From TrEMBL:
Residues 55-259 form the ABC transmembrane type-1 domain. Residues 284-294 have a biased composition (Low complexity). The chain crosses the membrane at residues 12-35, 55-81, 93-116, 128-150, 238-261. Its main location: membrane. InterPro entries: CysW_permease, MetI-like, MetI-like_sf, Sulph_transpt2. It is found in: Membrane. PANTHER family: SULFATE TRANSPORT SYSTEM PERMEASE PROTEIN (PTHR30406), SULFATE TRANSPORT SYSTEM PERMEASE PROTEIN CYSW (PTHR30406:SF1). This is Sulfate ABC transporter permease subunit CysW. Keywords: Membrane, Sulfate transport, Transmembrane, Transmembrane helix, Transport. CDD domains: TM_PBP2 (cd06261). It comes from Gordonia tangerina. The complex is composed of two ATP-binding proteins (CysA), two transmembrane proteins (CysT and CysW) and a solute-binding protein (CysP). It is a multi-pass membrane protein. Residues 267-308 are annotated as: Disordered.
Length: 308
């Protein structure tokens, strides 16, 4: 379908206005209110003991959730794409469950499961606290970020097929060698995007962690909970803006780091391909350019006929 220039420009203008109103304006306003009283005041708001502990707690959750989601996400994607087993459709639905269920419901379910009087609530009697502690925050974050790696890796696995893996197995490679040298390099970009989404959601999750957190600074208060606490409980509007800006800066830094890693990997892959494509020059003509000898062809039979 061909669109007129006026229609194309109109659609672009609508998209840009939509992004400007819903994304650029709110983010710019938060930055402006955060630095309204100067950089010094902003630095004081983000270096309080509560802010530092909230940042450390958020980064600790990310450091635990991302590796777990990478491992189990890849395993789940491989099972869904390569495996054939009863209940495969149920597993597909379970993976998408965090997209359909509200994070608040997830928090309530964790309380009923791990809280006092829950199915596994007796574990608190052993001195290991799940709900209203750090483990509860990790469990809630794992649940809400579970689908990202799976749904980014799964279509890539379907696209690459199994031909190369079968060829590696035929040549004698074991399972780990096939995965590390064939499968993992093929899914690296989908895995990278899944990791970026997991990090962003882990840093910005609020509903699920709010239900399983005591919201005590230094114990179970993340950056998102600090923003809410300052804005609603302490009536510290500018302090809440500063904490929100700190959260955005951390997310932007993670995205930049992932982009640099991706570009570095792409450049290494390109250099490897170029090195493999270059052949050393020996000064001799290629073998296919040399006329082959034909001992019994027409060229060799002509002198024999003349002699006859």
């Amino acid at each position: 379908m061909r669109l007129s220039p006026l229609t194309r420009y109109g659609l672009r203008a609508v998209a840009l206005i939509y992004l400007f109103v819903l994304l650029i304006v709110p983010v710019t306003l938060i930055f402006w209110r955060s630095f309204e009283h100067g950089v010094g005041q902003f630095w004081e708001w983000i270096t309080t003991p509560a802010a530092i502990s909230a940042l450390q707690l958020s980064l600790a959750i990310v450091a635990i959730v991302v590796p777990l989601n990478v491992v189990f996400g890849i395993v789940t994607a491989l099972a869904l794409v390569r495996g054939r087993f009863p209940g495969k459709g149920i597993l597909q639905a379970v993976v998408d469950l965090p997209f359909a269920v509200s994070p608040v419901v997830v928090g309530v379910a964790l309380i009923l499961l791990w809280g006092y009087g829950g199915w596994f609530g007796g574990i608190e009697s052993a001195g290991f606290r799940i709900i209203f502690g750090f483990p509860g925050l990790v469990l809630a974050t794992i649940f809400v970020t579970l689908p990202f790696v799976v749904r980014e890796v799964e279509p890539v696995l379907r696209e690459i097929g199994t031909e190369q893996e079968q060829a590696a197995a035929t040549l004698g490679a074991n399972g780990w060698q096939t995965f590390s040298r064939i499968t993992l390099p093929a899914i690296r970009w989908g895995l990278t995007y899944g990791i970026v989404l997991t990090v962003a959601r882990s840093l910005g999750e609020y509903g699920a962690v709010m239900m399983v957190s005591s919201n005590f600074p230094g114990i179970s208060q993340t950056l998102t909970l600090l923003v809410h606490s300052r804005y609603v409980d302490d009536y510290n509007e500018y302090g809440a803006y500063a904490a929100a800006t700190l959260l955005m800066l951390v997310a932007i830094a993670v995205l930049i780091a992932m982009t640099l890693i991706e570009r570095g990997a792409q450049s290494r892959v390109g250099d490897t391909d170029e090195a493999a494509g270059d052949e050393p020059s020996t000064g001799e003509a290629p073998a296919e350019d040399v006329a082959p000898a034909v001992p019994y062809g027409p060229a060799s039979t002509e002198p024999h006929k003349e002699g006859m």
